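Sync notes, pocket subgroup
Present: LS, DG
LS reminded everyone that the earlier model was apo-only. Rerun requested with UAG included. Inputs:
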Amino acid sequence: MSGSQKTLAELGLTARSGQNPSVTGISVDSRAVAQGHLFAALPGVKVHGAAFVTAALENGAAAILTDAAGAELAGPEIKAAGAALVVTEEPRAALAYAAALWFGRQPENMVAVTGTNGKTSVASFTRQIWQALGLPAVNLGTTGVEGDWEAPLHHTTPEPITLHRALAGAAEAGITHAAMEASSHGLAQRRLDAVRLKAAGFTNFTQDHLDYHHTFDEYFAAKQGLFDRVLSDEGTAVLNIDDPRIAGLADQMLEDGRCVLTVGRHEDADLQLTAQRFDGTGQDVRLSYDGQVAMVRLNLIGGFQAENVLIAVGLVMATGVAFNDVMAALPSLRTVRGRMQLAATRTNGASVFVDYAHTPDAVAKALKAMQPHVMGRIIAIVGAGGDRDRTKRPLMGEAAAANADLVFVTDDNPRSEDPAAIRAEVMLGCPNAFEVGDRAEAILRATDALGPGDALLIAGKGHETGQIVGDVTYPFDDVEQASLAVAVLDGKIA
Ligand SMILES: CC(=O)N[C@H]1[C@@H](OP(=O)(O)OP(=O)(O)OC[C@H]2O[C@@H](n3ccc(=O)[nH]c3=O)[C@H](O)[C@@H]2O)O[C@H](CO)[C@@H](O)[C@@H]1O[C@H](C)C(=O)N[C@@H](C)C(=O)N[C@H](CCC(=O)O)C(=O)O
Ligand SMILES: Nc1ncnc2c1ncn2[C@@H]1O[C@H](COP(=O)(O)OP(=O)(O)OP(=O)(O)O)[C@@H](O)[C@H]1O
Ligand SMILES: N[C@H](CCC[C@H](N)C(=O)O)C(=O)O
Ligand SMILES: [Mg+2]
């Protein structure tokens, strides 16, 4: 953090004993605490951060922010060390506001997007539209900070300190427009509570992350927090009403007098997708809004990408851009790396696509999206991540079997789990699939099976560049492996 100092009061915090020390920085991890820092001891999934107060004090923490349970655990120790103690019911929210106040700046026009699938695509499209209109813009999320200012990120929605450091850095560099992803973990953990949003979008709601949220209702409630809590009363909600639960949210928000822009294929949508025609390199779409109709070229493969574009259009309009100006920018949109990306073509004309589908709905939609482009058979490679929602595994297998002619089940970041056990769970949904644990071999064998007019979808890793086994990340890139497989099989390399 910078060399500056701020008092607790300047960070919106009040200490129990009335102390108001200046702090030199903020940390959520005791290992990152430096002399004079505020340490946020947060209740975690595995352990309470208060367990690390000793380490934080040893590293020089001047103040501790925590909840009642944390104060109970570490209060006497904090008092004995003479550090200030801030206790609040919602330490994660308090941390978010403190981080925003610490860094002090964020781009003036910020929007966020949530939903099970499509967040990165929408955030990127939103940024690309702003850029095409000459506005300095970034998107933040799974693929880092991209656009007119760049930085790597390790989370889709980073914890508040990392997030506000990035937002302030972008604002300092002259960025006026930013689109960020709001993951359900990020929302549940209040990571973006202090971001000032002009608008927020909701793409779709299907199964993922039930390991963390336990039930669909809890998962939806986390996402709804973006609209109930983070988006201000004046902000615009851009909601895809083709999804019945999101339509319910739209009704509720309208009843509450909130500003809502509905989008979708649904005839009641304010911004409606009224027609869609596919060809080899993308699609033509017809959109209507407030009595205006536009025919637009999208150089994007996949019917679902038009749904993502609708949300992006709504978000950009909510920052004050006219419908026709947005329409003019759409033909320049490019897909995010690893989303329905044509990775390689065999000499017999068969194509290999790489896509980040890692939920049952995404696998189904990605394979369906290929159908209008493919005359022959569709082959799918699927796998599911370790230490993630187990219940989605057979459903991903089922989605692959239902929408492809041939399925290969392979590994995708087994992490701490037994890879064979994960594959067995996926295979429950597609018992006739070929099981090939080694991902490179699966890609080679599936590519070998491609006849003229066939196409292969390699699902799950998209832009990722590693295979996580245990604690080790081995270099692995689906696009690279696809090119390699085609080169080997078509005799371009020995
Ligand atoms: C399940 C989850 O989201 N966990 C996040 C949560 O960790 P936690 O609080 O549960 O961690 P914990 O291990 O119980 O530790 C408790 C506390 O002790 C602290 N600690 C721990 C050890 C130590 O030595 N010193 C110390 O101070 C930790 O910093 C933490 O604050 O808070 C941490 C700090 O903010 C996050 O880094 C951590 O993200 C973990 C690494 C993670 O992998 N999260 C993933 C699942 C995630 O958030 N993914 C979403 C995207 C998902 C998607 O849509 O696909 C994302 O936005 O990236
Ligand atoms: N609107 C959509 N409906 C259904 N599936 C989609 C949609 N948009 C994208 N997908 C699928 O989800 C995959 C991931 O897309 P994207 O990265 O944009 O989503 P995300 O929500 O950011 O994912 P993550 O949760 O990992 O951040 C795509 O490769 C595609 O298979
Ligand atoms: N951000 C998602 C992406 C998962 C992609 C897939 N490759 C996996 O590892 O499961 C997650 O962490 O659940
Ligand atoms: Mg994403």
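DG: The longest helix spans residues 303-318.
LS: The chain has three domains: 6-90, 105-332, 341-489.
Action: DG to write up.
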